[in-house]
């Protein structure tokens, strides 16, 4: 293979990242099954990974350009390509050395439209990868998330608590009702199936748990459990450990948006000045968003 | 056919803490081959499709008061379950440390015996471990196969002789942990590993499937055997191009092995070798890994211990 023979035009993107593990964490969060494809969209603002399932669930991972220590964008428009998410995560994982920050360079496209990765921080040992990309499928439905009204319907909850609640709802299974009500301000998760289970987050009772709450009318929608579960099942342990909030918003028509923040900072060993409260520069955060469509037969539930 | 010896403290340490855990990963059953001067643990020597591992100790490295006799030039070989052997030695150690007051007090004797087990009419062969504690003696019988016949021992010895050929070029890997980490993670991506070794001191390991190519290049490794200076013009090429050009020039060899086998051979680091050498046997017959052990506190090879693995080649590739 003589990739160097014909010098290709300037690539669409050359970027370097000093914390592979952060990227692995962020992408793992949206990997809810083993074989899964992702669409990658490049722009001058950063890289977005989009994953979806049967028109009911979509996840996006935003890696903003500020996360990269070098970001050279040379494309016109916003190039998109498809890639196997599972393979990419396994591949990136290979670059990640435990207890050390590994610096990698990501380049697109290669001579055969591949995504090229290589480690750049060691002189005598180099890891390299070429991941085949494909022409992306069109995204089957557009997740135009619109606010449900003038007052947003949203709450922010500790990520670990959200995950725990959703994990617990596995037992009743199949269909989960999420209800927000202003008086008393609370969020209710209710599962009915092989039994009933109701989990209430009360805003004033435990402000540690529910850190923010906004709701001006009672609203309730049902969601398929397996889609709801996908929003928290692979949340990286670093997010649970930091235990920042995850923000949940209900949009028009009951579209559910779940947002997580994943730290892509270098391991704290090399940044001892990050204070113990876990504060990190906002630029070192990857944003993850899930959109879940409600189940169809919902008119009866909403007033 | 007689075998009786006392395991030294060093021998117990070598086996219990280092070699048996490593050899256990290579396969449950191995041949224990005893000669006048050596003790050998041999894995898969008589079958071609698995990782062969050959661990050889001079008798002084493990035993004192070593007595062996057989009509076949004092050679005895049998198959034994490594995990049982490991368990027997481990419990002997715990008895010694519990009651012992010095290495000479508690001698761990190993003996080849034939016993009539309960509910059996035929006597069966065992390797017996006898530990004398302060007030008690513990005897453990590890079942073994029937000792190999003269013809079978000859077959084993022939296989052993054939397994001694050295690759023309060997490159040294010092950080086995790094390599193991990498290969363990790489396993998820594919099953076949291309390994290429150049006379410049480069080692490449690479998995290629229709969807992905993932590899690592280790450069400027110490070379033993045939060695050539790396051409300066290659310096700025990509790892894959560099490897391909080295093969074209005849300065490198490449073979394809199973990732699982490669990962398995790396388990030998449990034996705590000081470094490892990788090489490809002539005609790409196998991938050889030689583990090196230093005399403690020195950088001199401990010649009384040797361990090497041979990985079967799935595709002879280019040579």
TrEMBL record, chain A:
Keywords: DNA damage, DNA repair, Nucleus
SUPFAM superfamilies with a match to the protein in the record: DNA clamp
A GO term from the CC aspect: checkpoint clamp complex
CDD domains: PCNA
Compartment(s) of residence: Nucleus
Keyword Transferase on entry: no
GO biological process: DNA damage checkpoint signaling; DNA repair
Xref: Gene3D superfamilies: 3.70.10.10
Pfam assignment, any one: Rad1
Protein family membership: Belongs to the rad1 family.
The protein's name: Cell cycle checkpoint protein RAD1
Biological source species: Carpinus fangiana
Phylogenetic placement of the source organism: Eukaryota, Viridiplantae, Streptophyta, Embryophyta, Tracheophyta
TrEMBL record, chain B:
Localization per record: Nucleus
Keywords: Nucleus
One example of a Gene Ontology biological process annotation: mitotic DNA replication checkpoint signaling
Annotated signal peptide: none
Pfam families: Hus1
Superkingdom of this protein's organism: Eukaryota
InterPro entries associated with the record: HUS1, HUS1/Mec3
GO cellular component, one term: nucleolus
Family: Belongs to the HUS1 family.
Protein name: Checkpoint protein
């Amino acid at each position: 293979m003589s990739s160097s023979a014909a010098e290709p035009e300037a690539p669409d993107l050359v970027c370097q990242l000093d914390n592979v593990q952060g990227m692995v964490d962020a992408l793992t969060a949206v990997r809810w099954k083993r074989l899964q494809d992702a669409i990658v969209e490049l722009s001058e603002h950063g890289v977005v990974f989009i994953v979806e399932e049967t028109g009911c669930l979509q996840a996006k991972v935003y890696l903003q350009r500020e996360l990269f220590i070098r970001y050279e964008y040379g494309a016109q428009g916003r190039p998109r390509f498809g890639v196997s998410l599972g393979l990419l995560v396994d591949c990136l994982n290979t670059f990640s050395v435990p207890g050390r920050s590994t610096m990698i360079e990501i380049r697109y496209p290669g001579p055969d439209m591949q995504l090229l990765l290589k480690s750049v921080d060691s002189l005598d040992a180099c890891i390299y990868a070429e991941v085949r990309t494909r022409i992306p499928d069109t995204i089957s439905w557009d997740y135009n998330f619109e606010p449900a009204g003038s007052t947003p319907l949203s709450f922010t909850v500790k990520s670990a608590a959200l995950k725990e609640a959703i994990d617990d709802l596995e037992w009743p299974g199949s269909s989960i009702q999420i209800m927000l009500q202003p008086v008393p301000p609370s969020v209710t998760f209710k599962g009915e199936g092989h039994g009933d289970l109701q989990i209430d987050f009360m805003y004033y009772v435990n402000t540690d748990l529910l850190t923010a709450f906004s709701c001006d009318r009672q609203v309730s929608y049902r969601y398929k459990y397996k889609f709801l579960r996908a929003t928290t099942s692979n949340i990286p342990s670093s997010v649970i450990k930091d235990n920042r909030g995850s923000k949940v918003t209900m949009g028009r028509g009951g579209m559910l948006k779940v947002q997580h923040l994943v730290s892509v900072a270098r391991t704290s060993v090399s940044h001892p000045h990050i204070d113990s409260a876990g504060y990190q520069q906002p630029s070192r955060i990857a944003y993850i968003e899930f959109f879940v469509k409600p189940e169809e037969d919902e008119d009866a539930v909403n007033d | 056919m007689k075998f009786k010896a006392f395991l030294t403290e060093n021998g117990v340490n070598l086996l219990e803490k280092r070699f048996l855990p490593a050899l256990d990963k290579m396969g449950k059953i191995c041949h224990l081959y005893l000669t006048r001067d050596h003790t050998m643990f041999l894995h898969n020597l008589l079958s071609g499709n698995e990782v062969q591992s050959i661990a050889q100790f001079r008798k002084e490295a493990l035993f004192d008061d070593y007595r062996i006799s057989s009509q076949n030039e004092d050679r005895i070989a049998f198959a034994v379950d490594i995990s049982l052997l490991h368990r027997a030695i481990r419990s002997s150690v715990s008895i010694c440390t519990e009651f012992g007051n010095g290495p000479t007090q508690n001698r761990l004797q190993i003996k080849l015996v034939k016993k009539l087990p309960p509910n059996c009419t035929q006597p069966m062969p065992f390797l017996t471990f006898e530990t004398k504690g302060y007030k008690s003696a513990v005897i453990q019988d590890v079942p073994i196969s029937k000792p190999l016949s003269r013809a079978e021992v000859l077959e084993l010895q022939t296989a052993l002789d054939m397994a001694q050929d050295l690759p023309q070029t060997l490159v040294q890997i010092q950080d086995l942990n790094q390599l193991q980490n990498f290969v363990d993670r790489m396993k998820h991506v594919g099953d076949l590993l291309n390994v290429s070794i150049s006379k410049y001191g480069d080692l490449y390991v690479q998995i290629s499937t229709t969807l992905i190519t993932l590899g690592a290049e280790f450069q400027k490794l110490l070379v033993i055997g045939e060695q050539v200076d790396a051409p300066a013009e290659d310096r700025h090429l990509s790892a894959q191009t560099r490897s391909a050009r080295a093969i074209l020039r005849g300065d490198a060899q490449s073979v394809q092995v199973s990732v699982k086998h490669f990962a398995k051979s790396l388990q030998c680091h449990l034996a705590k070798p000081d470094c490892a050498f990788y090489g490809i046997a002539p005609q790409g017959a196998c991938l050889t890994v030689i583990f090196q052990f230093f005399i403690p506190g020195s950088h001199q090879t401990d010649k009384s211990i040797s361990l090497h693995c041979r990985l079967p080649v799935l595709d002879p590739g280019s040579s």
